[in-house]
Amino acid sequence: MLLEDLHQIAAKEREAHQRLRYCVSVCVAAGCLSSHSDAVKESLTREVAEVGLRGYCQVRGVGCLGLCSGGPLLSVEPEGVLYQGVKPEDAEDIVRSLDEGRLTHLECSPDQPFFKRQVNVVTENSGRIDPERVEDYIAAGGYEPLVKALTEMTPQKVIDQVSRSGLRGRGGAGYPTGLKWGTVSKASGDTKYVICNADEGDPGAFMDRSVLESDPHRVLEGMVTAGFAVGASRGFIYVRAEYPLAVKRLQVAIREAKRLGLLGNQICGTTFSFDVDVRLGAGAFVCGEETALIASVEGKRGMPRPRPPYPAQSGLWERPTLINNVETFANIPSIIRKGGDWYASMGTKKSKGTKVFALTGRINHTGLIEVPMGITLREIIYEIGAGLPEGQTFKAVQTGGPSGGCIPEQFLDMPVDYESLAQVGSIMGSGGMIVMDSSSCMVDVAKFFMEFCMTESCGKCIPCRSGTAQMYDLLAKITQGTATSDDLALLEELCDLVKHTSLCGLGQTAPNPVLSTLRYFKDEYVAHIKDKRCPAGVCPCGSAKEVSA
Amino acid sequence: MQTYLEKVSPPSADRRWKLVSATMRRHGYQRQALIETLHTVQQSFGYLDQVSLRFVAGSLRVPLSQAFGVATFYHFFSLKPPGDHTCVVCMGTACYIKGAPALLAEAEKSVGLRPGETTADGKVSFLTARCLGSCSLAPAVVFDGEVAGKVGPVELQSRLQRWATHAS
User: Fold this and answer.
1) Nearest to B59 by CA among B102, B26, B95, B98
2) B58 touches chain A (CB under 8 A)
3) What does the pLDDT look like over A217-268, one tens digit per residue?
4) Where are the alpha helices (DSSP H) in A370-484?
């Protein structure tokens, strides 16, 4: 496969596309599928055949169109009309309207801030290509960066571009990607591995799932490029078994890439070979931690081990291993194509580029968004997300899942980047962003996350194993209205202990939801303890009859 | 040495064991294939039992204790057979703040099931999930593999009652 071959495939694809008068793209990513977009697609296909438009109008499934709350979504080209809340019985009207103008009652304006305020890098093809067709990806310019890297660049040059881009790990911790790649490439040994962490375990986060379901080749391309840069010839994608659609689309993508010689032996006629295998996770949150993930790929229990040695020196089967998150790999093709400087031109001083967030909770526009770093939380929530539903007042936004914190209103004008989020006691995390209103009790939310960490603790180190259970008990006591102020002091002490003595990230960050709610919503804790009252009316302590039941 | 290389034969003539063996063969019977193989077992049989764990552990030359350890460590693996119908309530953050706890209470009230339990007659299993990633449909519930969005206690109750009372 050479550049010319790619261009040929792309040209053929575009030609076929131009012959069509219309193209209806129905979102078949998980969100819209759950609201039966597959039935919409079927009835559209039937309708097109019935009115004899086959050959002129293509109906296809595409990845996530972003605005999940409007699902099922579909777009009609060439007009660029977006329809939301489409039902199978709307098919007739939609097909008829192709020649006669648009259906205003289903229309969803693509000019609204939800779409206009986004900057799409990782999600540039999402909703525009059929994720199960490699030709679609190639027509959108895909695999060109890989061929360019393999034929025109040295591994060092690839690493240089990634370093220049300022890209930092999108799994949450934010370690500079270029630095990591450099360490693995310098590590001694002939056998090295590349692992893609797609074990998206944060509740309320579905960015990686969406990227894998919408544009799987992009992730593969990033991995192959990484393999070339660090000198690895084998890669693994560790993906949650709970994401069957993502797994299926990845497997299709791997098969297609192999068929075209973009994966496998002697890629693009060079001496570089790279193979990718899918490994299924089995529902253990701790496997998002890199050393635990490695243990799981080896077929063992997913328990972390102390670092150093870091996986970059000794990882999978004790070989140097590069581990990056789905979104990190998905950024690579764009960085190679447009250069590291282009990527670094977006974002803030220390956090470059864009970040994908899953915006959910008490907000009008829930869905998947990609924004430049440095945008404020207020812009995300009130412009892109169109604010909270009528009659609800903002209380906090939760980022970073069980490792993150709740950010109150006073910090809404803060720019979103790794440092500022850490400063207010939360973390960037993988990108879950959950908006809460006054109907949520912050103590209850802290309890919810602590229950999560307690159940997910692997049990290897004592601070995390017992500490999370103790903290959970204390929080339960507070919500039941039986806690004293001594309990609160003990809780604070335990937070500090668990944070500083746990073995891995799970334990070290488990106290964050408690610490951040204690910092900004201490009055709610006090109300539970002193007045035996839950201000939000969620916890049982407010009504004695529920307790006795 | 000889004993290590002896091939373990499947526990029964059930054709589903062929699928399990195929997974192990694809991985060259290497120990690292343990989790992948257990996935195949669960996909084929619905759950893992002692018979299957022994077979897989023996075939991959992994100590039974390790196979059991892996099977119990990961939430995705189940050691109990599932009911005829399964209902999974998403307990992700978005679903939680939008009313998933009320659904749990409803399930306990109407059919007496707590998360992880199956009715005595084996008709209905009730489970929770960490996050289905269908946050825009919160609270989401999976009824027999099909995701339903914005589910209220009334809807949940009617589905569960129907399953629990009707013959499957």
Assistant:
1) B26
2) no
3) 999 999 999 999 999 999 999 999 989 999 999 999 999 999 999 999 999 8
4) 377-378, 418-423, 442-456, 462-480
Q: Which residues of chain B have a CB within 8 Å of the CB of A279?
A: 35-36
Question: CA angle at residue A148 from A144 to A149, to 5 degrees?
Answer: 120
* Interval A485-501: pLDDT, tens: 999 999 999 999 999 99
Task: Please name the member of B66, B69, B93 whose beta carbon is closest to the beta carbon of A203.
Answer: B93
Output the pLDDT for position A53: 84
Helices B34-45, B64-73: crossing angle, 10 deg rounding? 70
pLDDT at B168 over 90: no
CA distance A214 to chain B (A): 14
Domains annotated on chain B, with CATH = 2-73 (no CATH), 85-165 (3.40.30.10)
CATH topology (fold) of A354-437? Ubiquitin-like (UB roll) (3.10.20)
Chain A residues with CB-CB distance to B78 below 8 A: none
> Is B94 within 8 Å of A300 when comparing Cβ atoms?
no
List, for residues A10-29, the tens digit of each pLDDT value. 999 999 988 899 999 999 98
Which residue does chain B place closest to A442, by CA atoms?
A: B97
Secondary structure of residue A395 in the 3-state scheme:
strand
Give Cβ neighbours of residue B4 (< 8 Å, ≥ 6 apart): B61
Query: Which helix (H) or strand (E) is A236 found in, with range?
Result: strand A234-239
Which residue intervals of chain A bear CATH 3.40.30.10? 8-114
- Chain A interface includes B93 (CB < 8 A): yes
Nearest CB to B35: which of A243, A299, A432?
A: A299
